[in-house]
Design brief:
The protein is α/β, with parallel strands linked by helices. It is built from 5 helices and 7 strands. Helices cover about 40% and strands about 20% of the residues. The chain has a 7-stranded parallel beta sheet, with helices on both faces.
Length: about 150
């Protein structure tokens, strides 16, 4: 049975500007408009943009922070969780999502995508790593969110 409020983990670069930032913001907005909850790493870049899009649309954004300082959380989160686990928090981010959408990103994003696949979470790539048959590749935020919800059967 599909979740009633799907949690969509949005992962990507901690620094993002221009088109990349706007794509992540649009993903967050679209997730919220479909009744989903955005989960992210809670800091800047793609994480901030997705949280911003979700909360600006009246939705919820949860940040899973790498350290013990909640003061570093971006201003658009509805809730933040301080883990004190550094990059190991990537596992908590992807496990907290029912599906993962990767927007751009670097090696940290690649690790999150790999962890998601390892624990059985479907992954959608929007301008991120193309891992062949293991991920759904989407050319736009609309198609990425559509694919994410489709993979969950909602």
């Amino acid at each position: 049975m599909p979740p009633s409020h799907p949690h969509v983990a949005v992962v990507g670069s901690g620094t993002a500007a221009g088109d990349l930032y706007e794509q992540a913001r649009e993903v967050g907005r679209l997730v919220a408009e479909r009744g989903g909850i955005v989960v992210c790493g809670g800091l800047g870049g793609v994480m901030e943009a997705a949280a911003r899009g979700a909360t600006e649309a009246g939705g919820t954004a949860i940040g899973i922070l790498p350290d013990e300082d909640r003061g570093r959380a971006n201003a658009y989160l509805s809730f933040s969780v301080a883990t004190g686990t550094g990059q190991a928090r990537n596992l908590a981010v992807v496990c907290s999502g029912d599906v993962v959408v990767a927007v751009g990103g670097e090696y940290g994003t690649l690790s999150e995508m790999g962890l998601a696949l390892k624990v059985g979470r479907p992954v959608v790539s929007l301008g991120s790593w193309d891992l062949g048959e293991h991920v759904a590749v989407a050319p736009s935020p609309e198609e990425a969110v559509g694919a994410a919800f489709g993979l969950l059967g909602v």
